[in-house]
Write a structure and sequence with these properties.
Elements: H1 3-10, E1 23-26, E2 31-34, E3 41-42, E4 65-67, H2 68-78, E5 93-97, E6 103-111, E7 115-120, E8 126-130, E9 136-138, H3 142-161, H4 167-183
Antiparallel strand pairs: 1-2, 1-4, 2-3, 5-6, 5-9, 6-7, 7-8
Helix pairs in contact: 1-2, 3-4
């Protein structure tokens, strides 16, 4: 495994790229070293392109040296996209429905057969739940958030005027009303 692959796998678990390091390299004894600034940390894997014993310390441009820009480009290349179908994959940032019904933003850490684990961005805590009751969705744009708020208001008005209307039915009618306004079938002056 190349050093860039090891860094992409290891650094996110350790808080990301080391502060003030322009580049990283790996010593022959498995130590990841941030630039020329002393010691870093040890890992269990030795990169194919480590610094061999007796070689001089690598510098940017050497095969056994990874710059911050190279690391960030490799990290961005593996970022997972998710369209909202099925469960979100590991590593994706998405919205999750909390127990109180509000939505939060987090990063999926693990998806199992029956449980899903994620890191909540608001409080920095890790959470888990059964897969089926928890709801997840892609992070919405500002326009998507405004649309959802408007649909909620329309659905509330429908339920208020027709008390026997269920939430699902009101939401369906709210969506139809919204689409009719958006398409110009209903014009608001």
């Amino acid at each position: 495994m190349k050093l860039i692959e090891i860094l992409v796998h290891e650094l996110p678990k350790r808080g990301g790229w080391p502060d003030d390091a322009e580049y990283c390299w790996q010593d022959w004894d498995k130590e990841i070293r941030p630039g020329s600034k002393g010691f870093g940390f040890y890992i269990n894997e030795l990169a194919e392109n480590n610094r061999s014993k007796g070689e001089e310390n690598p510098v940017p441009g050497d095969d056994n040296c990874v710059t911050r820009e190279q690391y960030e480009a490799a990290l961005a290349a593996i970022k997972t996209e998710w369209d909202g179908e099925g469960l979100p994959p590991v590593g994706v940032e998405c919205e999750f429905k909390a127990n109180d019904g509000s939505w939060g933003i987090g990063t999926v850490l693990c998806v199992g057969k029956n449980r899903i684990f994620w890191l909540c961005h608001e409080d920095g805590d890790e959470y888990t739940s059964e897969v089926s009751p928890r709801e997840f969705r892609p992070i919405r744009s500002e326009a998507g958030k405004k649309k959802e708020a408007l649909l909620s208001q329309i659905a509330s008005a429908i339920i208020g005027d027709v008390p026997d209307t269920g939430i699902a039915t009101a939401a369906m009618y709210a969506e139809r009303i919204y689409d009719a306004i958006k398409s110009g079938k209903i014009v608001i002056d």
